[in-house]
Design goal:
Elements (H helix, E strand, L loop, with lengths): L1 H31 L9 H22 L3 H12 L11 H25 L1 H11 L14 H18 L3 H18 L7 H7 L6 H7 L4 H4 L9 H6 L23 H4 L2 H6 L23
Helix pairs in contact: 1-7, 3-6, 3-7, 4-5, 4-6, 4-7
The chain binds zinc ion (2 copies).
One zinc ion binds next to helix 4 and helix 5.
Amino acid sequence: MDWNNWLLDHEVAIRLGFFFSVFAAIAAWEIRSPRRVLTVSKAQRWFNNIGLVFLNTVLLRLLFPAAAVGVAAVASANGWGLLNIQPLPLPVAVVIAVVVLDFVIYLQHVMVHAIPALWRLHRVHHADLDYDVTTGARFHPLEIILSMLIKFATILVLGPPVVAVILFEVILNATAMFNHGNIRLPTNVDRVLRWFLVTPDMHRVHHSVEDDEANSNFGFSLPWWDRLFGTYRDQPRGGHEGMTIGIHHYRDAAQVDRLPGMLRLPFVGKISSYAINRRQWSKGDAE
Ligand SMILES: [Zn+2]
Ligand SMILES: [Zn+2]
């Protein structure tokens, strides 16, 4: 219990420490040897993408000051949730909780692609014309709020140890920056690593304009769900350098790579052929 208190007291320092170290490492790597040539200048992309991250951070602090760890602390203090019914050794409970939380994120990701209104929100993540460390954190504020509520509900049902929630969030944050990196891993390293972790080449397929490719590789940290549930795709048809990143028909940088355009994006256009019940089952463009 004391350990939990120590973690809660130092939580912000732990998170920021990991965030800045991983961000700096990936950013340096992609500036030194980028995988793809960017279409929009890095300065403009970073200014707007990081602006959105900043806005989301402030919004979450205001709306949910206790955050996910607070919900986990209340659940464990009250004995709520499946993992609190029968006490397990802490390491076992932590591993179960991290894996289950990652699975829920996978399911949520499939859901926001399939449901028309939620795809509107999630388009903000996909509309980025390029793919780099800042893409990993660009989500519309409404999608961030939805994710947080789903996480709260999961925590209340699951009852994970507080340390598991912090660990899960730190891992997800780090892996999202890593696998959105505009970086290249040696082919054999990528092949071995993607049995345990979603690699940049694996997740890049998911940012293709092609709708069958974008409907693949939904995992953020663990690659197993895509392989288990049939959504895994090895490589993009056009190759990593030749493939087009983004969404068909949303190719104007002023709209998709500037903050005001990104915030408005869910409310423009029609979802005509991408989401699950709008699909043209013969052949059609995705948007
Ligand atoms: Zn997606
Ligand atoms: Zn992504």
